[in-house]
Protein 1
Amino acid sequence: MTAPLLRVSELSRNYADRREALFAPRRVTHALEPTSLDIHEGRSLGVIGESGSGKSTLVRLMLALDSPTTGTVEFRGRAVSRGRRAAWFRRQTGIVFQDPYASLDPRMTVGRIVSEPLWGLRIPGDHRQRVLEVLDQVGLDAEMAGRYPHEFSGGQRQRIALARAIVHKPCMLVGDEPVSALDVTVRAQILELLAGLTTELGLTLVLVSHDIGVVRDLCEDVAVMTDGRIVEQGATAHVLAAPQHPYTRRLLDAVPVLDIPDAPTHE
Amino acid sequence: MTLRARDLTVNIGGRTVVDAVSFDVADGDRLGIIGESGSGKSMTALAMLGLLPDGATATGSIRLDDREILGLPDRELARLRGSRIGMVFQEPRTSLNPIRTIGRQIMEPVRIHQRLGRAECRSRALELAKLVALNDPETLLSRYPHQLSGGQRQRVGIAIALAAEPQLLIADEPTTALDVTIQAEILELFDRLVDALGTSLIFITHDLAVLQSIVARALVLERGQVAESGSVEDLLRAPASPIARRIVDAARATSWQKPEAP
Amino acid sequence: MTTTVPIVRQRGWARTFIRNPAGVFGLVTTVALVSCALLSIVWTPYDPVHTDVLSKWHPPSSAHLLGTDNIGRDIFSVLLAGSRVTLQVAVGSALVAAVVGVVFAALGSLTARWFREIIAVLIDILIAFPTLLIAMMLASALGGSIMVVIVAVGISFGVNVGRVSRPEIRRVSRSEFVTAGIAAGLGPVRNLTRHTLPNVAPVFIVQLSWCMAVAVLAETGLSYLGYGAPVSTPSWGRVLAELQSYIGIHPLSVVWPGLAITITVLGFNLLGDGLRDATDPRLGRPEVITA
């Protein structure tokens, strides 16, 4: 087995809540229990779990957007840390967030938003040209570069966010519930776009979702989380067909099944 | 109990958010309303209880048991709310009053509409808490909303809606904000209760799989208009309108279907 | 592949501003204030300090546009000259408040939590001191002057601006677009300047326009108490203070400085509101496409 692209070792995150009384001990929330995970280049991983499962925490720690309480993150064998010295790492990763209404600065034009990683990471080259290229790849018109986020629908905003995530040609793309806030019809389009881009650009994909349907088609591997830890992981087809852990079974049983009469069976 | 809506139209600030919507709900009947965001489904529900936001005008007709309730003065509508029509809202975090105990909030509709004494109200509240399958109801009644989980709060919301024994229950996306395992429990609760109490149900959702699990008949709304209506089976088998086709296709692409075990 | 990209521009903020009558009113009054101040440096109808006891209490006439006061000064000239002080106080305080506000804002977001808590406590202590008290403390040390008014109002408002901006800054820095900025490689300082501050700017703008308004009012009170402009310098506050005891006998004389103060204060407020609305891209400014 080749070395993993990204390795997470015993990564954990605790939050200390405010003290109830002056000398009372602080309550500690264990958002993520010590977790280890390998992400292999060129593969796609889905991280599924319900709210409070720690999946978003795990992903943010993985991308050095938050500091872990314990544990390390290594990218291609090199340790990743927060702060100024993370630029080499940030060049390799792009992220799309859940809320299309909060992840774009309302005071900046689309063009500036998309080009942000280019000037943030001081990448040389013609930024304007690159922005137009990437807008085209996500299915947006060039003239949209001069407009403001509030003029666009949720689905279009996620396309903008996606453009921003790939503009600097990273090798890994992370989506933190990228379609949860979108209408069902739009969801399908964005997922299709994501699938297309992943293949076309040879990206390693990490997709966090509470919705199994989202992960099912897009991700070869899946990790199931609850209560801050990964309880099951493996190839998506196997885990979904024959879940081993009781929580996974409960989760899969709970998802409402769409029974389409006379519809072709799945794949 | 019969509810009959004809050409219900809601205008907000010059925009038509509900456009000539008509439907019928008979006694013990279930009707689903499905649509995307902005399709007008929530506004339709709010119009029935006279809970539209300021500046909204509603025209058309809503007849509850042959009595026109659209345009009734608020005082009259207040008598209907809770006792004839109950409503469950989407967001369990904000639909409960954070500074009152659960018990008092459940008791409130009972006190207002049925004028029972203190002790009787409390036992009714206990009864309702057990009805919605809340664990340890005695202790829970004296707790505050923030001490409960999302699923528990939604159960409380259902208890409040059913407290004064309404004949019609309107549920506006009641499970959208919940985790999937909790959603399954709440849906099962709805199903069981509505059957047992003989209440009519209007269930609003954007999720086709959820719709199918709880109602047999539904309206598809798009931009305030009824794009299609009929049985859910027909809708899934052969959607006629473009929006219904898009919704079914999208749901098929992202929905969960248990694969064959290896 | 080079393609000519049509340039799509939103209507500029200046043109949006012009369409707002309230904002334009504020701009007009502010420009009028500045004009009066500049004009009065070179010319006033009469010497504002010149007293002519024989012509006291003349009603408005062609010779004295607004009449004369209790010691024969031409009220119009006094008001013209006084506008200089008003302008200095308003602009000076706003500048001091802006600097103090930005410093506190930056401290509040770039530093560690314990430091932030200390700053928060300091701010609350400073706020407990009323502006007048700070002014009197400064005046007793440095002597009464316009500078005292400017610094006193500037600091106490700046502290307020900092305090009001803190939750706004906290809210904005928790936004996902700021996290996205970190993911795009921006350091904390660049994130602050590119994302946080422009989004906090609307709150700032309104606060500063308020500050200017309050400064004008404060100058009135401080001059009345003798901590403001010295007796030799004409100021609206001083005139108002001196004439207010005659309000029963010669009400019109008090109306003029009062009116000047009121219109100026209102103008500052409306200007601030207008600017804030005009610079918010979200408030619907349709496009102008130029090929």
Protein 2
Amino acid sequence: MTHRILQLFPELTNVNGDGENALALARRLEWAGADAEVVPLAEGDPAPGFSPAAVVLGSGVDSALERTRDALATLRGQLTGWLAADVPLLVVGTGVELLSRRVELPDGAIDGLGLVPGEATALPGRVAGDLVVDSAWGRLFGYENHGRGLTLDEGVTPLGGVVRGAGNGTGSDGIRLGSLFGTHLHGPVVARNPRFAMALVAAIAGDTIDAYAPGRADAVADAVNAATARRLDLS
Amino acid sequence: MTTRPPGIHWAPAVLVGRAARTAARLRKRGGGSAVPGLVVNKLSPGFLGSVLSHFPEGLVVVSGSSGKSTTTKMLVTVLEAHGKRIFTNPSTANISQGLTSALLERVSLTGRIDADMAVLEMDEGHGALLSPQFEARTVVLTNVMTDQIDRFHDSEKVLAYLRQIASRATDKLILNADDAMLMRLADAPPEVEESPQAPSRNHHADASDASDASTLQSLFDEAGPGPAQAPRGAGTPTVELFGVSEQVLAALPRGLGYAETTVARFDGGTMVTGVSGRSASIAFDGAIHEVGLPARGIHYAVDAAAALAAARSLLGDGFDAAVAVAAISAMPAVFGRGEVVTVQGKQVEFVLVQNPASFQLNVDELDEGLDQVLVAMGSDVADPSYFWPVDASRIGRARIVTGSKAQEMALQLIYQGVQVDEIEPDLAAALDRFLALPEPERGVKTIVFTADPMRRTRSHLGLAQ
């Protein structure tokens, strides 16, 4: 069986390389001996006729927000169904914003899909730099670059607590809701954070493969993160 | 124009600048090129604009995300082949301190440079900050690509910068017809924005933006205001277009790499109708011309079309197509852009990648199955995430991945199926080991690097900067 990783609208949501988490998941499945492929879905394509092994939705530029929202809205039924079926959904940056109820913009707000119980609100200023998050999978490292945070409804669990950077702007970052994992850690968060990646791969393939066997790439990721921790003076 | 004309009042600024240059050179041989500019910009904020605005045949500004160096060099070459005396800046001096330093090399005590025309490459952000100080006869804009997202955030902000530069054009605006974002400037002729001195303060980027452009802004603020917002030049500039034909675009599996590509191709203007290796067919004025390129790749053909479009408009009846084509065809390879050098008796090809689009285009131009490739990513790439959309799998095998971002680059290459033999963050050590490898079995030794390791590599190998 081939694990199909659905990459949503990469032409609109891969500005920071977030869409490449689909490649990273597929590669990790292959390294563990499973068959996997990335299936990109372009704006205007018909909804996929299969149930994906995982879904990756990345971040885009503000000028494409409404377009991306409209494209996502055509998949509302599928997205709801996949979440109900515990299909892992990795969502980054404006992807999370568009799944929330509302996105605040300088010239008014736009509605999101309302799958994430919260709203995207303006931060005091734009943030760009390292983002470090303590999560259930250990310390996650990456970059952030955004002007809005995420205000989650009371009782909703974030992905983790912010150690460095802004994240949601409230001391925490992202959201964890069933099989949905949302974050401001943009770019290749899966490649950069092997333990988080292992958990996602385990959620995709279960016990059919050894999702927790570290590979050479993981030693490289550990080296990147150790260097980042030294640079940021984190103990 | 509100800039002060050349005159003896600039003598103190010029003298201080020369003194700073001497001091900088004593301190660090061959270095310190930005320091004199920094000093003069601080003391006499109007100096740069004054010199730029007083060339007898005007100022040409070339900007955009990528291709500005090559386009500038090609345009200068064509204009010089037509007998024009041109003042231009090296590509390493395309921000305002560097520009002022470059001017100081040539300027008289009264703030004049003995040249007919200036053709200057400008960084997008710095060009926008400087824009209130100059008026350009012609502005050439190459493209908008996803570039330096930590600094520019997104392509909309880059477009806002370019709009401000374009607003200083008095005569001609030369635009890439295939770039949908730039074509917005043609649809709505650029007006001077509400706050032309603060491009970093549009809604995409607020005052907390820690980019070097805003640092520069504070420098101008401290130095007192530059000339008040200069009035718009006479009339709206005419738009001239360059680009590629339907057939050329259809043959590019990954397109042109612009943030947005126009849906329909244009007619007329200066159009690339074919490209093969280091030669391109470029159509203008009803004829197709065969032009030799300084390196392989569609982007060099587009740069040539941009330079030819600008030269045609600047020279008018004096433009000679044969002279122009011969001049471009005779150009040597641009530094680090498909340039082949001999180091320690070994041939090495340099491939500079400045942003994801140029990374992709250049990797796609590499020969398949190269067995000796070194990849270097340096501190100039603050956040390597946005390089991930580049499919670098064609590299196949990287003998060494190096530079201060070596591990992050290696991580991408490994996930993309490239065999990575060794990761060595120390560039000098990596270069020495790479050069010491026996001659490759296939192709030449190839070094793919970002801008910062390119400079360090040239310096380490004793090559001209």
Protein 3
Amino acid sequence: MTIQTEPLKSVSDIERTTLMTFLPGRIATMLGGRRWRRLAPLAVLVVLCILITIANPNFIELRNLVRLANSAAVPLTLAMGLTFIILMGSIDLSVEGTLSVAAMVVVLLAANDSNGNDYGWWAVLAAIASGTIMGLISGLVQTMLRIPSFMATLGMWFIGLGLSVYMLGGSAIRLNDASIRDLALHRFLGLPLAVWVAIGAFALAAVIQYYTRLGRHILAIGGDEDVTKLSGVNVTRVRIAAFALAGFFFGIAGVLAAAQLGQSHAVIGDGRLFAAVTAVVVGGTALTGGEGGVVNTLIGVLIVTVLANGMILLGISPYIQQTVQGLMIIAAVALSLDRVRLKIVK
Amino acid sequence: MKDSNGLVFSGSVSRRTLMLGAAAGAVTLAMPNILRAADKPTLVTSIRSLSNPYHAVWKTGAEAYAKWAGLEHVTLVSEGNSEKGIADIKAMLAKTNGNMVLSSDPNDTPDARPIVEACAKAGAYVVTQWNKPADLHPKDFNPNYVSHIEFDGIASGKTIAEILFKTIGGKGGIVALGGLISTTAAIERKKGLDAALAANPDIKLLDFQVANWKSTEAFDLMGNLLTRFGDDIKGIWAANDDMGSGALEALRAENLAGKVPIVGVDGIKTAVDAVRTGEFACTVTSDPLWQGGMGLAIGYNAKIGKFDPAKEPPEHREFYGKAVLISHDNVEEYYKTNVESKPEIDWNDLWGRVTGAIRA
């Protein structure tokens, strides 16, 4: 449902087209232009799957597909929240902090090996609520104190991390509540419950983006905030709501992560911010905002997960795996964005 | 924080106790020297932080020794700041006029030199642990730089590998999870694994992957390794317990927990519990309680003239301590003596855990 605006190409734009921007643009034109480019992430995913299957047929075994879904569950839930923020043209760096607070809350309130609490599923609700509140605060700080989202959420990241370190006393605390652990261990129709939760999160995000006013306003802000404001949208309110929504998804992800690992420690979120941003961007959502969406992100998460799984299946040395990931990010972004139309590259 | 997580928390102190301790220390320091029995030296422990279980247990050991010896004890915390660590030690040297014994886990390798030089200049006795530059030697600072203690990563990696091989019957495939590539501990423990593999040709290392010391990364990695090798994986070698526990949860999600044995290093509580249930085959620990107390004991005995550092053999000046192995055979006893109650350590046995001089 993205609204495509086709800016009139001025003479100066054409003059600006140097060799570097000319080449990918030409390749894309040969492939059929913008319509096809939007499908580039999906094509990358399909090609990856085919290549890995040829190299190691174990890849398409049902057991492996279930594992793939399982390891995509937490990143997908996180990336759902992050997508809305990036669609707005903002960024949320508090992913790891919020996730670790949610994981800390659920572990400390449910049955654990550190205190006598045993609130069962209330702990899960409390964890999701604490994630939402963290997001709400990010949004309020950003809009009320006029602090850029980059700085506001960077602050929230460290606040969250500090809070978890303090509450957990620097150690790992185990989650003993069997019903919460069932999120990772119990299966329904062959898939762990965590995967169903992640699918639910995706469905919810899709409904919000495509069928609610909030979703359209978020997209509109990303496209052009001034125009949106002039059209009578309460931009401040939309921003706060978007950050709270992101916090809500991070909270769910925190619960899933704690359930999967059976424990919580302050660094449970380590590395998840980078993975989530990568997934969103690789899926084709522009960091400048206004373009892309949750479906793109779903594909992005799958690309990242399939690649990680594939590199192990192909036996690629751990010493160069990160290099491959870096190459893939550049390739995916180069394919999916129309660089010719970009006037400025920052 | 009851006995159930006693191992991890056996060293933890409530904030109130900490504040009381700090206040008491400050009051004591404010007293004139005469009131503090000037002839008795002050014991000083310098560590990185109290927020990790390892150093919290370290402090408990130091306090246990001080109580046993009837001496004053002060803990300095550098909070990962080398400058602060060194400055605090210099302040203590000034306050005690050099009449002190220091046991230090320097925040970073280069820190050991200024610490040792300051102590030697003030006439205090110092024992360093884990970190020192290769060209800094106790024998160059007789008698003040008494000893340096480390634990042999190669031996740890090898010991747990051998136990893993024995548990799976001496043949079959294993996968290994390594630590952050650039760290000394990761490199040494992998060397130990390689040595054990060389001695056991029937064991096949299916794959070595890096999970950067983290359980979260080990969790995802293990799922992928299960796809690639499936039932060929008979055992899992992890360079630390945290990664081992991440791999364990990945196994649990596939109903394989307890069927594929795991080994690790550190002796964290999760791992000790897993050894009890049979999901881990073993883990090894450097025993921070011993480290905390014995670092002070060695320095204090040199200080009061029980032995002359200059006359001690090289393997008493720079040595590897003996890591404690926790396996199926001794886990119940270990749990009883280390988790459910405080262990008894013979503080007179200064060299009982020396396993040899540190490799040059």
